[in-house]
Design brief:
The protein has 274 residues and is an alpha/beta fold. The chain has 10 helices and 10 strands. The protein is globular and about 60 Å long.
């Protein structure tokens, strides 16, 4: 199978140098392996993600010289694929509805997941009136019954750059607790949609930031439960600002759009990368 890699930004803000660094690693590895480089737009948050930001993302990448296979997969156009995956997990009895608010989850939690969010205490796990509440239209998410889902130890294969040395890594999805796989406000989640998309697009190598390394454990579990292939993974360093904070949209890190407006060229912008 030919190598296939993807850069998958969320259009909820402008691209910054951290995004470009990740995109370049993916594009360069795809070229090195004689494979394909895909662009995927992860816009399941249809409130914060907009078509204007999607167009700006593509424009910035094209200006920098990136070229990708078409058509581009736009996640918001494929909710039916994620619903099908949800149905398969429900058939296995692995999902349960959760009606709790964020405040309720916070108040009853005694631990934190790798992202620092409260781990769910299981309040809704054994409700007897869940179906009647759903029928009444009460807002709910769907959580993975983690204890039931894990049947054996899991591992995945990580690779280094540029050597491509392979290493077996133990996966520990239990650290996420009963994670939300279908949100109240969106008929999927990052975890579910990324696993489905990677399989549908034939992704063989996933290159993404270290901030998503812990997520790989739950992704490997979902791949097993859904009968999907597991790619090879590499989690690269995160670029930081002058204060040692990772570049991010939430910190208003200087965007590619701003750099372009300031007179930078594609060459000078790429020259800012490690």
């Amino acid at each position: 199978m030919a190598a296939t890699l993807r850069f998958a930004p969320s259009p909820n803000g402008r691209l910054h140098l951290g995004h470009v660094y990740s995109a370049r690693l993916n594009a360069e590895l795809a070229e090195k392996l004689g494979g394909k480089f895909l662009l995927r737009i992860e816009d399941i948050d249809t409130t914060r993600c907009t078509s204007a930001l999607t167009e700006a993302c593509m424009d910035d990448l094209a200006w920098l010289g990136f070229r990708w296979e078409t058509p581009v997969r736009i996640q918001s156009e494929h909710f039916a694929d994620y619903a099908a995956a949800q149905a398969r997990l429900m058939e296995q009895g692995l999902l349960y509805p959760c009606f709790c608010t964020r405040r309720q989850v916070e108040e009853t939690s005694t631990a934190r997941d790798p992202d620092g969010a409260p781990i769910y205490s299981g309040t809704c796990k054994h409700l007897v009136d869940a179906q009647s509440r759903i029928a009444a239209g009460e807002a709910h998410a769907w959580r993975l019954d983690m204890a039931k889902a894990i049947s054996a130890p899991l591992e995945y294969v990580a690779f280094s750059l540029p050597e491509m040395t392979l290493t077996a890594v133990s996966a520990d999805p239990a650290v996420w607790g009963d994670a939300v796989l279908v949100r109240k406000d969106t008929p999927t989640s990052y975890h579910l949609s990324v696993v489905v998309d990677d399989a549908l697009q034939g992704i063989t190598h996933v290159v993404r930031g270290q901030d998503l390394e812990a997520s790989t454990s739950i992704h490997v579990l979902l791949q097993q439960l859904l009968g999907l292939p597991t790619p090879l993974y590499h989690h690269h360093e995160l670029l930081q600002d002058d204060e040692g904070r990772k570049l991010s949209k939430s910190l208003s890190s200087r965007s590619i759009t701003e750099l372009r407006a300031a007179g930078e060229t594609p060459e000078s912008v790429l020259g800012l990368l490690p």
